[in-house]
Design brief:
By secondary structure, the protein is mostly helical. Helices cover 70% and strands 0% of the residues.
Length: 105
């Protein structure tokens, strides 16, 4: 194949076009090497998704805590909560904690 035949081929004409010669390296640079590359954007999108999941988790925990606080406005519920959660007791009262072994032999 001679150079003349090679120059007549359509693919050679497209690949040697000035716009293609400039555009291809530019696209490669922007996709992989630039500070604002596609890969960096994908990493940031993953971080945003993780942070949004964290936000929704903490919002649900806040709602649960608000419901617990509302319940604890009643003195009987407050006493029950203190006994169950912090193992508090009244004066002259004994508390026995019974734990069951869940391991089967």
């Amino acid at each position: 194949m001679s150079l003349k035949n090679l120059k007549q081929k359509k693919t050679f004409k497209i690949l040697t076009n000035v716009f293609v010669l400039i555009l291809v390296p530019f696209i490669i640079w922007m996709l992989f090497f630039d500070d604002n590359s596609y890969l960096v954007h994908q990493k940031f999108n993953r971080e945003i998704k993780d942070l949004e999941n964290t936000i929704s988790f903490y919002k649900s925990k806040i709602e649960e805590d608000k419901a617990t606080i509302k319940k604890l406005e009643d003195s009987l519920q407050l006493e029950r909560f203190a006994r169950e959660k912090y193992l508090m007791k009244k004066e002259n009262e004994d508390i026995y904690i019974i734990e069951f072994d869940t391991i089967k032999d």
